[in-house]
Design brief:
With 213 residues, the chain is of the alpha+beta class. It has one domain. The protein contains five helices and ten strands; from the N terminus they run H-H-E-E-E-E-E-E-H-H-E-E-E-E-H. The two termini are 34 Å apart.
């Protein structure tokens, strides 16, 4: 998954959506709980959706935790069916990023995520990757994302290299709802496709302005 350049340019500390701000919004997440974090990821799906976590394919309501998980449902033969969520890993967030202020790896992640949030990108989960970086799971609402197969750190799992937890730092409020309720299915999907258009428009405007000089 490629993040538009406009979300990664000229980053400042004022752009950051800081981890402490995320946790302040949802104080339940101040307490580390691997079981709860995995349940939040499971609720990206319907209970009987077949998903892949680690080497296991099982229904979302019962699939066990592992180090990695995938953002798509699976067919009976294990092949991908349709993307539900797209994981933007730390490497995606910081690649080719430029910042006006000196920043750490984690702070660059926070700044890019701050830009994404400001642009209305439909963020579902923000997860600590266990390596001083952040990962973002976003709604695969745009039709061109429906066939993408992305992998990310499994919330509630642990980083095999550092043995640190993949902790959920923020979750879309609907994911807190039990499966019996339908509110979790609703994101800001109606406006989601517009964020990419806005980025492209700004890039074109900037190029036109430079050419006119």
């Amino acid at each position: 998954m490629t993040i538009p350049t406009c979300l990664r340019m000229g980053l400042r500390h004022s752009d950051r959506w800081r981890v402490d701000q995320m946790l302040k919004e949802q104080q339940e997440l101040l307490r580390e709980d691997a079981v709860r974090d995995m349940d939040l990821w499971r609720r990206l799906y319907a209970p009987r959706d077949v998903v892949r976590v680690g080497d296991v394919m099982a229904e979302a309501e019962s699939v066990p935790v592992a180090e990695y998980c995938w953002g798509c449902t699976r067919q009976a033969d294990g092949l991908p069916r349709s993307a539900v969520a797209i994981c933007m890993r730390a490497a995606n967030l910081v690649r080719s990023a430029s910042h006006a202020d000196a920043m750490t790896h984690r702070e660059v992640c926070e700044a890019v995520i701050g830009h994404m949030r400001a642009e209305g990108v439909p963020i579902l989960l923000v997860v600590d990757d266990g390596e001083d970086g952040l990962e973002v799971w976003t709604d695969a609402v745009a039709s061109e994302y429906r066939m993408l197969v992305s992998r990310g750190r499994c919330p509630g799992g642990r980083n095999a290299r550092t043995d640190r937890a993949h902790r959920v730092l923020w979750a879309y409020p609907g994911l807190w709802e039990p499966w019996a309720a339908d509110e979790w299915r609703t994101t800001n999907a109606d406006s989601a496709p517009n964020w990419l258009d806005r980025c492209v428009e700004r890039m074109i405007a900037g190029t036109t302005e430079r050419s006119a000089r």
